[in-house]
Design goal:
Number of strands: 14
Structural class: alpha+beta
Number of helices: 6
Order of helices and strands: EEEEEEEHHEEEHHEEEHEH
Shape: globular
Strand content: 25-35%
Largest sheet: 12 strands, mixed
């Protein structure tokens, strides 16, 4: 639990895309159509130790994203919560068309609005479609709809040197499927905005639409890349491929400690000083470089 404001940005959790159903031992509260609890772990291939973790809590009309402290972070100035989620806090606020990043260790916050993300999306898509790199050009879209193959509770999208595979579960309600899509779309664009590079986000946005249209949520997402450019019956499959696997543990209710965590995050946000994005990211980078 967050006992006080003691978070610090964790760049590691942004280096990879984010993402089984969790039997909760604790008492679940606030069990209604407005709530959802998603705990995410990201793995490098079949590794047992996650590269990154996050906890996303949907309450009322917003989503709170709590990021884990980067693995190996031994800074004495950081006091992670008992479950490890002592990193950056991100408020996804679609009604106000904004995302708020909160670094409560430094007591600062910054806001990224929907217009900034929309401008990024337009300019990034235009750039990608003009690229000589087949993967980048393909990832600029827009022709993904027919390429998404759906079979039962699994989706697959294959492009040049890349393959996305998604296992889904039924959402508690169609409304929550749409809310989750809004959150996931914003999270993908935000990562592209803050950490440019890698595959453009548009294939993931297409997958998110397909999942939400089926009134589903992603339970596991696998991203495979292959520098040789082929996945179909490749004789050396697995030798050069890189696989990132994200697992979501989903529950349609919040626990009492989740409600406390949200209250603490609201207090942290209220107390934090608003700074511009450049100052926020510069200070976060400087803090990481000093460790």
């Amino acid at each position: 639990m967050l006992s006080r404001c003691s978070a610090r940005s964790s760049p590691v959790v942004w280096a990879v895309p984010w993402l089984l159903l969790l039997p909760l031992g604790a008492l679940s509260l606030a069990d209604d159509a407005e709530t959802l609890r998603v705990e995410t772990e990201v793995f490098d291939g079949d590794a047992d130790t996650p590269l990154a973790k996050s906890l996303t809590l949907f309450a009322r009309d917003v989503a709170w994203d709590f990021l884990a402290v980067a693995p190996g972070d031994g800074s004495p100035s950081v006091e992670p919560s008992d479950d490890g989620f002592g990193g950056e806090i991100i408020l996804h606020d679609p009604a106000r068309e904004r995302v708020v990043l909160i670094d409560s260790h430094r007591n600062v916050r910054t806001t990224v609005d929907a217009i900034q993300l929309e401008r990024l999306s337009v300019s990034l898509a235009k750039w990608a479609r003009q690229s000589d790199d087949k993967l980048i050009c393909w990832a600029g879209g827009p022709g993904f709809g027919e390429g998404v193959q759906v079979e039962d509770d699994q989706l697959e999208l294959v492009g040049p040197r890349v393959r996305y595979r998604v296992k889904t579960v039924a959402a508690p309600s169609p409304e929550l499927a749409v809310r989750y899509q809004q959150f996931a779309d914003t999270a993908v664009l935000l990562r592209a905005f803050l950490h440019p590079g890698g595959v453009p986000p548009f294939p993931r946005l297409a997958i998110n639409r397909e999942v939400a249209a089926a009134d589903s949520l992603p339970a596991e997402v696998t991203l495979e890349t292959d520098p040789r450019g082929g996945f179909l019956n490749a004789p050396l499959a697995g030798v050069l491929q890189r696989q990132l696997r994200s697992v979501h543990r989903i529950h349609p209710a919040l626990r009492s400690d989740d409600l406390k965590r949200i209250a603490d995050a609201e207090a942290c946000m209220a107390a934090a000083e608003e700074v511009d994005l450049a100052a926020y990211t510069k200070a976060s980078t400087a803090a990481s470089d000093a460790e």
